[in-house]
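Sharing a chain and its predicted structure for anyone who wants a worked example. Both blocks are below, sequence first, tokens second.
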Amino acid sequence: MKVRWLGLVLAVVRDLREQRAPASPEEVADFETDVLAGFVLARASAGLADATIRGDVGHLEQVRVWFGKSSWDMEAADADIYFGKVLRDAAKGTRLARTQALTTYFQFLELRHKVEIHQLTGRVVECPIDEMNRPRGARTPRCVSHPAKPASVRKRWATSTREGQPTDSCVHRANSQRLSRSASRPVRCFGTAPARRS
């Protein structure tokens, strides 16, 4: 039905999702496998080591086995139960690694598959780990700044090197330090006990 008025056209629009049949459990399982394979490929393309990716996938599989449903169905209350009861006595590193794997996976889902999952299941993907149930002790990466070298060290280095090569005095000082250190240690020959000093 179209209505024309002053050059504008109005039309009735229907939502196509109402016409789409719900996804079967097999389709959801196949999609979940494809998403996990995409996650592995994305992590590999980011340059992570195979062992790290295997560890993340292992953590995700353990959460999935406990949950018994697709990971994207997990809510904050489920994470509360999992981390508060199931993993309560687990090592701190295990809890942190599992939390990080789950958080990273949900970031991947939200960035790449949010619309597909909503179309397939009707659910909006949201990470079940929030500030209230995140295990404490997660280390945040920090920038390391090296302290400036004192002027005396810079001056000594500048006078002891010539175009990046150590000077004779620098080599002599290093050799004399090495000799003085070795003189204080017992000499050891192959197959013999150290010589005793009296």
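Comments welcome. Residues 79 and 85 are 10 Å apart (CA to CA).
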